[in-house]
Amino acid sequence: MKEITEWITGNVTLTVNGQPLELQMTVPATPVKPQRMLPIFQRMTDSFVEMGASAAQARGQNVSCRAGCGACCRQMVPVAEIETHRLAEVVAAMPEPQRSEVYERFDRALAELAETDIFERMSEWEGLKPDDRERIVREYFKLNIPCPFLEDESCSIHQERPVSCREYLVTSPAEHCAELSPEKIRRIEIPVKPSTPLRHLGQTNRVVGADFIPLVLALRWVEKNPDRFHEKSGEEWMADFFRILTNKTVPIPPKLP
Ligand code: SF4
Q: 36-58: per-residue pLDDT in tens?
């Protein structure tokens, strides 16, 4: 992976709940694949989550998520196509025996899922009613398949965890996550959820049905769908991201001579 040597910093102002939200971002000035933008989206997500956590704390609600609590890590975790490629790189770079163990956990998870029709039904995701989607998510959870990255009930790729994992922070007791009781789970409200636009960023139209890929399928996905992403500058990727987020065209400032 070639090193990024040129960076550019700019400001973006979003209007969230009628209030301006100023973001300063430093992005690659030269063309890169979209997965190279992930650290920027991860930091952006962490900032939004911190805002949500501070607002909750001001209301007297403290975050109950702790290292060693993997209660939510048996859910179907949605990841973006660009995240699958990053996750595959992360696993490939792991030292042995961890790398082989993680591959084995992915294989075991897929073998269990192959006994069900969950992925088959997910191919119709777009046309499914919310209740049917909810049923699939619950059935998946009932299988009690730990995320292949879960070790001793902690995330073994904490710095690299997907954006949807970063967005999931609760102030309710862990047992509600462990039972998947949506009515009792109190999630931190965040001003913007980057996971949603991220799913469409650079997407190659190979994702059908749902607009996400379940995390357990990430490595299989990459095997079958090699990296064919285009390269764009960081500013262009950011403009795409905010266009998808806001449904508006985002102008890119002209380059200075
Ligand atoms: S990636 Fe980490 S945080 Fe996300 S589900 Fe897996 S173990 Fe949990």
A: 999 999 999 999 999 999 999 99
Give the three-state DSSP class for 78. strand
Q: How far is the CA of 184 from the centre of ligand 1 (A)?
A: 21
**Helices in the chain by DSSP H: which ranges?**
38-58, 81-92, 98-114, 118-122, 130-142, 163-167, 174-179, 195-198, 218-224, 234-246
Taking each helix axis as running N to C, give the angle between helix 38-58 and helix 234-246, from 0 to 180 degrees, rounded to the nearest 10: 50
Instruction: Among 149, 168, 180, say which to mutate for ligand 1: greatest number of ligand atoms within 8 Å of CB.
Output: 149
Per DSSP, 225 falls in state S
Residue 7: strand pairing partners? 28
**Strand pairing partners for 10?**
25
Q: Which two tokens stand for residue 220?
A: 């299989």
Stretch (H or E) spanning 150: strand 150-151
Q: For ligand 1, atom 2, which residue shows the shortest CA distance?
A: 155
First to last CA, the chain: 29
Please tell me the distance between residue 70's alpha carbon and the centre of ligand 1 in angstroms.
8
pLDDT in tens, 104-163: 999 999 999 999 999 888 887 878 888 999 999 999 999 999 999 999 999 999 999 999
- Asked if residue 150 lies in contact with residue 64, where contact means CB atoms within 8 angstroms, the answer is no
What dihedral do alpha carbons 115, 128, 166, 138 form, nearest 10°? Answer: -50
pTM of this prediction? 0.91
Instruction: Spell out the domain ranges in the chain.
Output: 7-246
16, β-bridge pairs: 19
The b-or-e profile of 206-240 (16+ CB within 10 A means b, else e) is ebebbebbbbbbbbebbeeeeeebeebbbbbbbbb
